[in-house]
Design a protein that fits this description.
alpha+beta
Amino acid sequence: MTRGVYALIIHNEKKQYLKIGKLGTYLFLKGYYVYVGSALGKTATNLENRLNRHLSLTKKLFWHIDFLLNANYIKIVAIIYANTTENLECHLASVISQLKGAEILVPGFGASDCTGKCGAHLFYFMIEKDSLINLIKTAFSEINLNPISKKINSAHNELIH
C-alpha cells in the first residue's frame, strides 16, 4: 500500500448525539456510514499509515472522522481502498452521494478541504453491511479503480489479512 483513496464502512450501534469538532453536535442514527478519504503522501500520510491511524484507539482528535471514530458504539467494520496517485476523493464521494439510499446527515463532514463541491464525505445508509460493501466497491469501479476490501477484526480493531 502506498497512495490511494479509501472508504471506511462504519457501524453505529446506537442512535446518539455526537460533537464533531467545530462542526457542532449532530444526531447519528443507528446503522452504517461510509466515510471517503485519501492518502496521497509518501511517508506518514501514505495509505497504510492513514488507515492504521483511523483504526488506532489512541490519537489526537484532529479531523472530523477522528471525533466520530472516538465515540462509543462506533466501529469500523470494513475498509475499501484502491491504489492511485490521482486525487479522486471528491470524485468517489460524488459517486457515493448519488447511490440509492445515500444520505448526508452532517453537512460538511470531512469536506472542509474539499476540492469539489461535495456536501460531505460521510454518508448514511440503511442497508445491511455486505450489500453496502458491494455497493461501495461498485462505486470504486465506476471511476475506474480496482477496489480492495478488508474486513476489520473488531475485537482488536485491526485489519484481517
